[in-house]
Design a protein that fits this description.
Layout: H1 2-23, H2 26-34, H3 41-61, H4 64-67
Helix pairs in contact: 1-3
């Protein structure tokens, strides 16, 4: 029971963090630029969409494959 709650909380956090980066990628762009990693906001949004899809799939399915 505890592990299912932790799994759901982690999946929700992944989904919410991705959604925040889709909405405003500039904080991550600035952080990466300060580390001399040049990625545009388009690339950040693409990665964030993947993050949202993974979090949504984890919440929706509960599959071991998705969890892995």
């Amino acid at each position: 029971m505890v592990t299912e709650g932790l799994y759901a909380a982690s999946a929700a956090l992944l989904l919410l963090a991705g959604a925040q980066k889709v909405a405003d990628p500039q904080p991550l762009v600035r952080a990466l630029t300060s580390m001399r990693i040049a990625l545009g906001s388009s690339w950040i949004r693409v990665g964030a969409l993947g993050e949202c899809l993974l979090g949504g799939a984890a919440l929706g399915s509960g599959s071991r494959v998705v969890a892995g």
